[in-house]
Design a protein that fits this description.
The protein starts with a strand and ends in a 6-residue tail after the last helix. About 40% of the residues lie in helices and about 15% in strands. By secondary structure, it is of the alpha/beta class. It folds into 2 domains: about 15-250, Aspartate Aminotransferase, domain 2 (3-Layer(aba) Sandwich), CATH 3.40.640; about 255-345, Aspartate Aminotransferase, domain 1 (Alpha-Beta Complex). The longest helix has 18 residues, at about 325-345.
Length: about 350
């Protein structure tokens, strides 16, 4: 039985155009800096986002880690949201590999950090306390239902951080979803941050890869860190070629994923036993709560009928729309969920 896989947008497969570009890619040795396709990708991305330079890396986790370690010294501190990906899902890499401490602040439901709390939490260099070297933001925010953070909010946090000589890094894994949702060029989202990363391997549909952007000096440091983490690559133009296709062909279609997510959310909200406000769905992530708290049982029952979702924590379920999922899949998934919930909560006879 074929599955409707809504676990994540990381399950996407490369498009035929990507596969063709990969097969035909001109390659060199990126370790020596002479893979022409990688170099072109880095130049295209830097120009697109208004930054001086860019660096192709194997994964989003490595992109964030290399960025943090390029900004920070051992014993420094970074401010992160308590629901952020860089804090919860990246294996405490900054501490494990760089001796960098995490200082958590609560994420609001809209994914933001309170600006006053950020300013109060920043500790300038002193003889006694850890130096706050970096503030990390996330856009879209994974654990906050894929919500979008505006460039105006980002600018405000950057202004606060720079006032105290701290930098700002953006985990923009799904940054293009945010840009499409707001209807603005992606460079507007990142205009003030010191560094950023985004993933090619999520909604953009590539098999592998993320990219870091910032100043030339920052990217030079990040290259050294990337290589020290084992991320130096050779004839990687075969992957960069797919990323170039993604930038040309896969960004505008993200609006279709957002449409399908809203369709899914609206349908789920009408099913008894599911707690969901469709108005919270801004991009391609749908988060909802099981009234009985049995998220794992629910996921097991729908998977038996051909639909897969994800259990991020507690009574929550996450479903993500992506390339390869269409309206018919959404409607079929809703039929399965409705059937499962009807079996779980049969109507009482009057």
């Amino acid at each position: 039985m074929s599955q409707i896989d809504l676990r994540s947008d990381t399950v996407t497969h490369p498009t035929p155009a990507m596969r063709q570009a990969m097969a035909n890619a001109e390659v060199g040795d990126d370790g020596w800096g002479d893979d022409p396709t990688v170099n072109r990708l880095q130049e295209v991305v830097a120009e697109m986002l208004g930054k001086e330079a860019a660096l192709f890396v194997p994964s989003g986790t490595m992109a964030n880690l290399a960025s943090v370690l390029s900004h920070c010294q051992r014993g420094d501190e970074i401010i992160v949201g308590d629901q952020s990906h860089v804090y919860l899902y990246e294996y405490s890499g900054a501490s494990a590999f760089g001796g960098v401490a995490y200082r958590q602040l609560p994420n609001a439901e809209d994914g933001t950090l309170d600006p006053d709390m950020v300013e109060s939490a920043i500790r300038p260099l002193s003889s006694r306390f850890p130096n706050t070297a970096l503030v990390c933001l996330e856009n879209t925010h994974n654990r906050c239902s894929g919500v979008v953070i505006t460039p105006e909010y980002t600018d405000k946090i950057v202004g606060i951080a720079h006032k105290w000589d701290a930098a700002v890094h953006l985990d923009g894994a799904r940054m293009f979803n945010a840009a499409v949702s707001l209807g603005i060029p992606p460079r507007e989202l990142v205009r003030s941050v010191d560094s950023l990363m985004f993933c090619f391997s999520k909604g953009l549909g590539c098999p592998v890869g993320s990219i870091i952007c910032g100043t030339k000096d920052f990217v030079q440091r990040a290259r050294r860190v990337r290589n020290s983490l084992g991320g130096g690559m050779r004839q990687v133009g075969v992957l960069a070629a797919a990323a170039l296709v993604a930038l040309e062909e896969m960004v505008e279609r993200l609006a279709g994923d957002h449409h399908n997510a809203r369709r899914l959310a609206e349908g789920l909200s009408r099913i008894p036993g599911i707690i969901l406000d469709p108005a919270r769905v801004q991009t391609n992530i749908v988060m909802f709560e099981m009234a009985d708290g049995d998220a794992l049982g629910f996921l097991r029952r729908i998977e038996e009928r051909g639909v897969q979702g994800h259990h991020p924590y507690g009574p929550k379920v996450r479903m993500v729309t992506h390339y390869g999922i269409d309206e018919a899949d959404i409607d079929a998934a809703l039929d399965v969920v409705e059937l499962v919930m009807r079996e779980q909560y049969p109507a009482k006879k009057s």
